Amino acid sequence: MTNTSGGTVRKPKSPPPEADRVVRTVCSPNCMGTCGVNAHVRNDRIIKLEPASFPDPGFERICLRGIAMATERLHHPDRISHPLIRAGERGANVWRQVSWDEAYDYILNRQQAIAERHGWRSNAWVSMTGNYAFRASTSARRMANVVGGTYFSKLGLTADSAAYMGMRAIFGVDYASNDISEVGQAKFLLSVGKNVVDTGHSEMHFLFDAMERGLKFTMVDPRFSRSAAKADEWLAPHPGTDVALALGMIHVVVSEGLIDEAYVVTHTNAPFLVREADGACLRDENGEYLVWDLAAAAPVPAGAAISPALRGSWTVSQRGEEIDCVTAFSLSWREWEAFTPQHAASICGVPPEQIASVAREYATTEPAWLWVGYGPQRYAQGHTVVRAWATLASLCGNIGKPHAGMNTNDGPLMLLLFSPTAEWVTPQGRVGHSLPGTRMVEAIASGEPYPVKSLWMSAYNFGTQSPLLKRFVREALPNLDLFVVSEQVMTDAAVYADVVLPCVSYYEDDWDVVGNIENWYVQLRRRAVPPVGESRNDVDIFGGVCDRLQLGHIWNVDPEQSCRDYLSNHTDPRIRAVDFEALKRDGVARVPVDRPYTPFRDQKFATPSGRIELYQEQFADLDEAVLKAKPQAESGQRDRFPFHLITYKHTHSTHSQHTILPMIAEVLPEPRLEIAPTDAARRNIADGDVVRVFNDRGHFVVKANVSNGVPPGTLAMPQGWWKRHFASGHPSDLGHIPESPVQTRIAETNYSVWDFMCDVEKEEQP
After folding, report:
1. Can you list the domains of the chain with their CATH numbers?
2. Of 608, 629, 619, nearest in space to 742 by CA
3. What are the φ and ψ backbone dihedral angles of 389, each rounded to 5 degrees?
4. I need a labelling partner for 310 at 20 to 30 A (CA). Which of 201, 299, 366, 412 fits?
5. Which run of H or of E encompasses 454?
6. Which residues, in sequence order, are CB contacts of 75 under 8 Å at separation 6+?
7. What is the pLDDT of residues 91-123, one digit of tens each?
8. Tell me: the pLDDT tens digits for 210-262?
């Protein structure tokens, strides 16, 4: 069609066909957004997605990722639609299609043979975060418990658990955060490694609205992320130096008298007396923690003191022993006093005057919201990062105050997945065995603490999301008599399986409850379209095994009833109070919590002392009783490998779920390595050059993007790319999981994604 001026007029597109039905369901990959969506369905195909309504305004949202999952991944040409058994060597990607009956027979023949030789604990399951709904996410753990098998925990494998462990050590809970919709009531927001524009973009508008009402947004991020670009102020520390930065701020607020001393004395263990000899807290004969009461001029139980001293040292006579004691605060200050802004700047790279000014602004602005994301805890000392910022918040008295606090994660998602209802996870009291997921490869390879001879993996693209695929294939896989993967497409890990079982996406699943991590809504997942081919959900897949083991009476629960029971029997009273009838009717219900939602409003903490534990007595033997900045895991490798590699979350992909989709490829066509101009010049690397990134463990080949958005000494790229996206190698090949004694004592070592060094060189082209 041509207009009179000679130009071309694009013919209007025909409107999409009208839907036969509209289904309210939940988009829930591991972006944590859990967006409610209305799926418009015609001829069993989703033809349109639109945001679903919520009882409160502001939560209606949708994004390109969700649209791409519904329209492209659901019917992707690589979609696995029938059970497969390998027909060649492991890893050869040669398969034969089989029935579910044959697949089950194959699996059970091997599992039962293993059980006869070693016991059922030698059959193991591991499940990750590819599907965040309670039934889907907890079914592998439930399966291991029902048959007496082993469950490799997902806690450390997520690379997100250092934050939880830091919170648990200092506050006694794994997570605590305000409701993001209430950020508009804060006056100052200090966001540390929380790249909300990319990783929480569906709720970013709450922050934008708050900024329009006068909120100052200060961002801490080594790279110039999109959040940093939107912030009023940006602090760019060197990767892995957050503790030094926080200690620099702590020095300012303490030395300038900006701490809330009354709060610190009353609600933290800073005034507790500590034995100089061994770092243990001084207690009386009843086990009560002692402080030095200035009014009594003597040590008294903390709860009875009239005027507890925050600073000072004394010699205390106790049971015939003269004990040199110091307050926990004074003992800590011996370490913190050296961290002047100038000293902190020499480590973290943030100018000292900026460290001081932000510290003063945080300490003197009310309410001040401190928000710590996943990024800064992805180092071997990640728990300490959370502890450092929590210490700053506590010293300023910002814990338990509305619109302030030390915010990491919270909400019903965490409660549904990590505080599960016993009747569901351990039906009839059946409990199996558990081993740390971060030690999975070592356990299988070594046979310690007992042989693990089969592994069933679900909701986990191990090939891209773990640094251990090469070790798994080389050391662990030969020790497995059976390796099963439940998947939607043939991933880089699934190709090594003996059996691959087709599982549904969340648009094909039915009856599951999904929580959010930033607000207090739960939603009901309902099926929008029939399962592709013979795909089944994880609950039904494992149920088929239980039926053949004569355990179907334990496993099989009506899906709707399981959702109802899970909520009504939950360990947390807030979840028990959810109105299931409203959830069933509307597809969404708010967990009844107070507004504004303020963790620790009652100033009660589930710690041994009942207070915020700034001083960590239980780690005195590990040299971590006092908060201190410790070197990174591979800091000694800097001469050989001078770069840190940050593989950050991108707005257009959740982990590895979206990078293979054509719609995403239009906006994110290929991996690019970001490198600072000065570093690129020293290595004769120009924008677009092919480079090789390497260390002693592995390498990958990628194109360079010369960018001022990363500081010198840092390399950065979006994560989630598959092996097919690289000419050679993969970023995960460079990583490792160094053991953390402190984290292991709390729960288990966290996978410290970024705590390694590497180098980069221009790849010579033939």
Report:
1. 84-158+433-506+531-577 (3.40.50.740), 178-407 (3.40.228.10), 635-762 (2.40.40.20)
2. 619
3. -70, -35
4. 366
5. strand 454-458
6. 45, 532
7. 999 999 999 999 999 999 999 999 999 999 999
8. 999 999 999 999 999 999 999 999 999 999 999 999 999 999 999 999 999 99
